[in-house]
Amino acid sequence: MKGTLLALATVAASLVLGDTPSRDAAGTKPPDRSRGKFTFVRAEYDSIGGEGESYYYFDRRYWERWETDYPEAEENFLIRLEELTTIQVNPKPISLRLTDPRLYEHPFIYMSDVGWQDLSEEEVAHLRAYLKRGGFLWIDDFWGDAEWVNCEENMQRVFPDLRWQRIPDGHPLLNIVFSLETCPQVPAKSYWDSWREPYDMPIGHREPTGGIEGVRKVNFLGLFGEDNRLMALATHNSDIGDGWERESENRVFFETFSTKSYALGINIIVYALTQ
User: 3-state class of 162 per DSSP?
Assistant: First the structure.
């Protein structure tokens, strides 16, 4: 895919999940225009450790790991999703704990920066139930060996008998709307500004990272259920969300990384909603 995303992509099937309600009889309450539209849900979670681990300081504020890039990444993505598909979009993303019963109202959840993630037994049980009922999970923006191990161990608690499998070339995730040869690697823009490499530097990620070799290769992996349904997707060693959040900050970054970030994100949403 070259340059900016100029062509509109048409989704064949209607993805509207319901009807938008009208005003009440008195006409005093505005309609809930988010109902019946796709809502981007970010999963909230706890992390272990102190500063630089469970939380960090960046861009003049402290961030918990679950909220990395939130909500700007999702807000930008939802604008593009509505521009480039026929999906009816709620422009306001939300964040929910895995134990929140409202989670079951949404077919898709996104997790970011899970290298220090710590799930309780209750959260594990709720995530298992959500995925078995047809939900879809995307895990993004975690780098190196130790962060992968942490993710793998948490998901093994969710599904002890399942193992991550590589998403093969030609899978619909890579071509259902936009054609991609492979999962793009996207660095955090702060790393790219300093090193101009397509991957994050090991510094700042959980040790042991495996050094440059531990971060320079994208791992595009899935957890498949007994019916071969893809329930969870991992974009390890890539920060797709930063490609959305930082799209307006640098033209070269946008054309090199953001366009592919949007292409993959749109493919994933369309795939998740049509399976």
Answer: coil
